[in-house]
Write a structure and sequence with these properties.
Layout lengths: L1 H5 L2 H14 L13 H12 L6 H15 L5 H20 L4 H25 L12 H21 L6
Helix pairs in contact: 2-3, 2-4, 3-5, 3-7, 4-5, 5-6, 6-7
Function: Involved in formation of the rod shape of the cell. May also contribute to regulation of formation of penicillin-binding proteins.
Subcellular location: Cell inner membrane; Cell membrane
Family: Belongs to the MreD family.
Length: 161
């Protein structure tokens, strides 16, 4: 019964994350834009690994590449790397308090920026600005609210952490 009631949460959360990624921001705030899609995929990899894995992350990444107009496969690669690391450490990460989970997610988002920078270097694209490295901090700070919101929607109520 619970899965029928909350089966809409996964696709809706992905669509909202894609829309938040497309939302225009003032030039001053643009470097702080968190990688919403990574936060949502991270939540689902941690909390529902039977439905969300590497294949799901790859498909969502391809959809994001098409939506954002980025290099085809770039976000797919980034999300698959993140999902792989999360799957590897899921058993431990699930039982961390939210503050420690946020630090781990911040590290994963920093790793995502390193992967992105490596892709830019490999393709001889222009160097990314220094402010590019600030977004993982915003994502780390948003992890707890995103986690709690998705958890409440998925489970149908607030769960104490």
């Amino acid at each position: 019964m619970r899965t029928q009631r909350s089966s809409w949460v996964l696709p809706l959360s992905i669509v909202i994350a894609l829309l938040l990624g497309l939302l225009p921001l003032p030039e001053l705030l643009a470097p702080l834009r968190p990688y919403w899609l990574a936060l949502v995929v991270a939540y689902w990899v941690i909390e529902d690994p039977n439905r969300v894995g590497l294949g799901f992350a790859f498909i969502v990444g391809l959809v994001a590449d098409l939506s954002f107009g980025s290099l085809l496969g770039e976000q797919a690669l980034r999300l698959v790397v993140m999902a792989f690391i999360l799957q590897r450490f899921r058993a431990r990460l699930r039982f961390f308090p939210l503050s420690q989970q946020a630090l781990a997610i911040g590290g994963l988002l920093l790793n995502d920026r390193i992967v992105t920078a490596a892709i830019h270097v490999a393709l001889a694209q222009p160097t990314l600005p220094a402010a590019f490295w600030l977004a993982p901090v915003a994502g780390m700070l948003l992890w707890a609210p995103v986690f709690l919101l998705l958890d409440a929607l998925r489970l149908g109520g607030w769960r104490g952490r």
